[in-house]
C-alpha cells in the first residue's frame, strides 16, 4: 500500500484533490468509491471519514478530509513541488485568502444560486452573490497568469476548479472573460489533463 491513499469519486470534489496529487508528482494510490453502491457510507470508509463524504486522504498516520485542507496539506507536506507559500513570504496572506475564498465564499454562492434558493428570513446576506464572487475573482486574475504572485500554487487549484465548477458544471457563475481565460490556461496543465482524462473514464 502506498504512503498516500486518496479516496474519491467521479464526479465529485475529489477531482480537485486528484489534480493536486498529480501536480505534487509523488506516488499515490487512488481508491474510487462508487456512490451508486453507497460505498462512501460503508463501515470501512466511515472509519476514515465519519461524514461518509469524499475526498479523503491518508498520508501515513494522518487522515485528512475537506478538499481545501487536503490541497493545502499536500502543498506543505511536499515542499519540493513548490505549490505552497512559505509563512514568511509577502504572498502568504494572499495565498491563504484565495485558498479559503473558494470553499467559503464562492461555493455557497454557486450552490445557493444553482439550487434556486433566495434569502428571505434575514435582512443581511450571510454570503456573497455569484456576481460579487465573479467580479472579485476577475479583478484578482486580470492581467495575471496566476492568482498569487508569479507562479502556480495550490490557490490556483482551488480557485481554478471552483471557476470550472461554477461556469461549466453548475453554470450560474457569470462567464466573465477573465475567468474563462484563467481556467482555459490552467486546464492545459499536464497534471490536470492526466487527472481529468483518467476521471472521464469513470464519469457517470
Ligand atoms: N466540504 C467538503 C464536502 C464533501 C462532500 O460533500 N463531498 C460530496 C461529493 S462532492 C460527497 O461525498 N457526497 C456523498 C454523498 O452525497 O453521499 C469538502 O470540501 O470536501
Tell me the layout of helices and strands.
Elements: E1 4-8, H1 14-24, E2 29-32, H2 43-46, E3 56-59, E4 62-65, H3 67-77, H4 92-114, H5 130-141, H6 154-169, H7 177-186, H8 190-200
Parallel strand pairs: 1-2
Antiparallel strand pairs: 1-3, 3-4
Report a brief summary of the structure.
The chain has 204 residues and is an alpha+beta fold.
Describe this protein's structure.
The structure is a single chain. The protein is α+β, with helices and mostly antiparallel strands and 204 residues long. The chain has two domains: 4-83 and 191-200, Glutaredoxin (3-Layer(aba) Sandwich); 92-189, Glutathione S-transferase Yfyf (Class Pi), Chain A, domain 2, CATH 1.20.1050. 48% of the residues lie in helices and 8% in strands. It is built from eight helices and four strands, in the order βαβαββαααααα. The chain has helices spanning 14-24, 43-46, 67-77, 92-114, 130-141, 154-169, 177-186, 190-200, and strands spanning 4-8, 29-32, 56-59, 62-65. Strands 2-1-3-4 form a four-stranded mixed beta sheet, with helices on one face. Strand 3 and strand 4 form a beta hairpin. The two termini are 27 Å apart. The model has no long low-confidence stretch (mean pLDDT 95). Residues 12-13, 40, 52-55, 66-67, 103 line the site of glutathione.
Strand element count: 4
CATH arch. level architecture of the largest domain: Up-down Bundle
CATH topology of the largest domain: Glutathione S-transferase Yfyf (Class Pi), Chain A, domain 2
Shape: globular
C-alpha Rg, in Å?
17 Å
- Enumerate the spans where pLDDT stays under 50 for 5 or more consecutive residues: none
Query: Total number of helical segments?
Result: 8
User: How many individual domains?
Assistant: 2
